[in-house]
Amino acid sequence: RHIGKNYACNGGWSPLDSDRYQWLQVDLRARKQITAIATQGRYSSSDWTKHYRLLYSDTGSKWKPYRQDSNIWTFSGNWNSERAVRHELQHPFVAQYVRFIPLDWSEEGRIGLRVELYGCAYWADVISFDGQGVISYRFRQKKMKILKDVISLKFKTTKGDGILLHGEGQQGDYITLELQRAKLLLQINLGKRFNSKSSNQYGSIQGHTSVSSGSLLDDDHWHSVLIERYRRSVNFTLDQHTQSFRTNGEFDHLDLDYEITFGGMPVSAKLSSGGRENYIGCMEAIHYNGDNITNLVRRRKVDTSSFRNLTFSCTESRTFPAFFNSTSSLQLPGRTDADTVSVRLQFRTWNPSGLLFFTPLMPGGVEVSLVEGKVTVHIYVTLGKNTRVDISSGSGLNDGQWHSVHFLALESIAMLTINGDEMSTVRAALPIQIRTGGDYFFGGYFPRTDLSPSQRSFQGCMQLIHVDDQLVDLQSVEQGMLGSFENVSLDMCAIIDRCVPNHCEHGGKCSQTGDTFKCACEGTGYSGATCHNSVYEQSCEEYKHLGRSSDTYWIDPDGSGPLEPFRVTCNVMEDKVWTTIVNDLPAQSSVATGSRAEDKTVLTLNYSMSAEQVNAVTSSAEFCEQHVAYMCYKSRLLNSPDGSPSTWWVGRGNEKHFYWGGSGPGVQKCACGIERNCTDPRYYCNCDADLRQWKEDAGMLMYKDHLPVSQVVFGDVQRSGSEARLTVGPLRCQGDRHFWNAASFNTPASYLHFPTFQAETSADVSFYFKTSASHGVFLENLGNPDYIRLELKLVSFSFDVGNGAVELTVRSSTPLNDDQWHRVEAEWNIKEAVLRLDKVHRETRSAPPQGHTHMQLFSQLFVGKISGGQRGFLGCIRSLKVNGVTLDLEGRAKVTPGVKPGCSGHCSSNGMHCRNEGKCIEKYNGYSCDCSLTAFDGPFCNDDVGGYFESGTLVRYDLMSESSSSPAVKEGNPGVLSAVGNLTREELSFSFSTSHTPAVLIYISSKTQDYLAVVLRHNGTLQIRYNLGGLRESFTISLNHRNMANGQPHNVNISRQDRLIQLAFILKHLSYNFYYCFHTHSQFFPPSDIFCFCLCLSETGQIDPVLIERYNTPGFVGCLSRVQFNRIAPLKAALRTGVPSSASIQGDLVESNCGASPLTVPPMSAVFDPWHTDSDSAIIGGIIAVVIFIILCTLVFLVRHMFHHKGSYHTNEAKGAESADCADAAIIVNDPAFTETIDESKKEWFL
């Protein structure tokens, strides 16, 4: 309905001055409900208003700004003089007076405005409460059992405490609505069961429910309350904000006696309530379960005898508040050249610091400020020498409540009183008698002088300002007749509690200032501006995806959802990941017997988390199991097959189950009944035979929708001689269906659709994607004009909540269309929008300080393209979560053309987690690492396989036996080639630790004299011996002055290609590489055996007897691990007894990883390296060795090349030198003095 217009004779309102102090006020003659507004510029002119704010009031004073989305709302106005702009109010209000405050106007002209207001008539009975009178509404019956309640009322007050309504019953039930510190508190108790020893005085703790709502409700403005209760479900609404909750206790009815009161408690109840205050203020439109209480009061139908003077109008308070922002200042006059400074005022603020007032002295000045929640006074005296007197009082005064301050400086003493507490007044002596300057600056002091205060501004409200013991008339200030002000909003207090409702999620603590709020998320398990994002992964499967090994982790299955994070044990195996949740029941717990035969014995299991958290694990798992075992002595279990079960267990949802481990639902049997091997074939459980001997029924419960076991109830343990013991193992779940839930989009037009995205004040989306396309839309949801969209063009996140489109973009250092998995996380809340890519790249955009904060969407959520468009996504999307809920992509893909469930190619993104040359194997819902051709084990092929050897222990691997059954042999080829590869090259790697010398570590023999041996000599140095066909003596490489028998793990890698040998080893975290070349035959005769550690001579190729005698007595004692010869891991084959192999063990071998270090480690400081005494010399020596080696080989090449071209020359080169690869090889071949023998003194090469 059209309520009013404002047309001036010149075509609209246009003030003489265009500034922010102008306003247009509309008087509607009576209170009306306003639902919409419209504005135009001044007719046929260049005058219009672009932006404005709205104030409203019942009386023409105490103005209240229109608020929306927790902000003082700014309306968009006009951009020309003709077009009308209309706004439907999100929150209609009731008022008689409405003010328009222009904020921005036409650059070509000035402020111009025509307005229209839309709404309807409003009328309500108003009752004024003075703190004495109470309305008593008596019930028609003495006692009322109320199942459903609907209570509504409106109130306005300047008091922060007082009871609005109260009712109670003799059974302990009660309902109370009251103000406490300007917040509304609803307390309900529907009662509990009492025994003879319990008391029902004023309810019980078990049934008590208390919910708080709102803040700053003592603002002298109307607030509406609605309470709706049905049984234990309650909706509690304050000013359009609704909280829904369930009451504690176990009853549904509210049992009240005699009456319910409004405005306070009856005298009889106040005696036991702790003297709580009655309400002072006004109420209107009071309704209780269909009865109009205010109308009944006017008609004298209810008891109002406690009122001294019952009035049906609302008395206005005499306060005249002023609202300050960071640029505000209020200047008031005072007495000049007086010897007294006396200032009193009330203030309320959220800011910990700010200037309350400042006044110059002659000489000096007085500053009264709020500093970290305390009122602090600084008195400056500049006569002679500078003197400063400081006093402070109070604490936590920035809590948004009204506080009073009284400062008095009289003659030579200063006094500070907070909140009228004269007993806590702080006093200080002054060095001289002060003289006033005459001016007082409140809330801000911006002139730059030598005595500028430390605090220069204040954000909040002040009222009841007294200067020189006189109340300042702020209405005169507003009219320009007293003092002056700048950017001060008079006759209103627009302070906002930004922490109510609390936008900090998951228990984050909210703190605020006048401009903004922030959330402290420490200890919550969440992060972000509103503590929205979980810092933990959703499951053990995701930790494996990140390359983590078995350990205890925090997981958060629903991400940003309400479920709190919790700890589980993750057992990461080669082909699966187990999540383990333990309970508190000890193994083989004895089952206590009852006093009577009909008694049941109950054992309750408690898990390390809530039932909801356990259900989150089982719901997402692919498979779950829990082991149960019942040991019995004359105690029946299920009483099968005919009788009712003696024992049952309780699982998920408190459902009873009558089957036991090893069986399934609907079958009253144990494992032996399924396998038909019970002790007594007439029964389906061993214990049901009822024998006087110990029996057991055990097995796995594997129906995951019934798990976990929360209780076991026993019915056959009361008989004489009956005994029973129970074991319930941990709950173990494998897999994560949510994490691998994926869909493949095969055409640009293919898409999936889901219900509308719920994104009121916060929302988050996360998913993995991989594609070879350069663009495409991941998802979109539309509103009007709101929308949300995630798109691949780089990666962009765009949305609109009514403030205009916002787009965030992140750039990656690598292409995103590389067919690798990438993770996208997008979040929007009222503080900021965040876009993250691969947990590395991040873009953040802060929300505007004022504007829309609620996103309203109406279309379906489209995944894979935009609605009605073609910019479709080609590729895979996996683990799509919206607000913590995983969307079932696979389920929708199964019934949607152009989209396929699942996605292959996991190894392309995750293969790097398979270490040590492990092979990545594709699976439908993930990947696994094949470690069969490595010397390692574990889910990622990074677990060492080794053993501890005692004297006489031997591991032998028969290469000929291994290769005899290979396809290569059947085809007539040397079978050993398939086992060890190309015989012109080989690679041997292992790790060892020992403190004993000498020892043979590894010996690889053949049917001929060829062999490779790695030995530790008597002095602990390492020696490698090669004998390839043609050498009269073995080629030896010795590493002198390096004692490797020091008990530390050392890694060795020997690689040969033809005649070039590379030796790499890691000692004490330092890496070394050496190169050697040798002469004669460069092909290893097919090896027959690999021996590790201590050798025997039976059934082997030829073994050097001198080497064995010299180095293998008494044998190797120590640890070896990660032994690999080409593609063969002999030690792993010997220790893995379940896998057929040609490995055998002689003696005692205990499996151990030997404390081996990683194969690749960063360089270590030489300070900690026992092999190095001078790090600089070691580095220089290594460089020199490499340079000399290169120079020698170069010189030999040049000499040979030069002599070839000269024709005839003299040389000492012997026969066979032509075939040598380098000078060293030529000398070795032809000079007997350099020929290697077993004699170390003559025939070793030293480094």
Automatic annotation (TrEMBL):
Residue span, Laminin G domain: 126-314, 319-493, 741-903, 944-1154
Keyword annotations of the record: Cell adhesion, Cell junction, Disulfide bond, EGF-like domain, Membrane, Phosphoprotein, Repeat, Signal, Transmembrane, Transmembrane helix
Membrane-topology descriptor: Single-pass type I membrane protein
GO biological process, any: cell adhesion
Domain F5/8 type C: 1-120
Domain EGF-like: 495-532, 904-942
Primary subcellular site in the record, as a coarse category: other
Disulfide bonds: 876-903
Residue ranges of every copy of the Fibrinogen C-terminal domain listed in the record: 531-581
Xref: SUPFAM superfamilies: Concanavalin A-like lectins/glucanases, Fibrinogen C-terminal domain-like, Galactose-binding domain-like
Record-level GO cellular component terms: membrane; paranodal junction
InterPro entries: ConA-like_dom_sf, EGF, FA58C, Fibrinogen-like_C, Fibrinogen_a/b/g_C_dom, Galactose-bd-like_sf, Laminin_G, Neurexin-like
Compartments in which it is found: Cell junction, Paranodal septate junction; Membrane
Transmembrane portions of the chain: 1178-1199
Superkingdom, natural source: Eukaryota
Similarity section: Belongs to the neurexin family.
Protein known as: Contactin associated protein like 2b
Biological source species: Cyprinus carpio
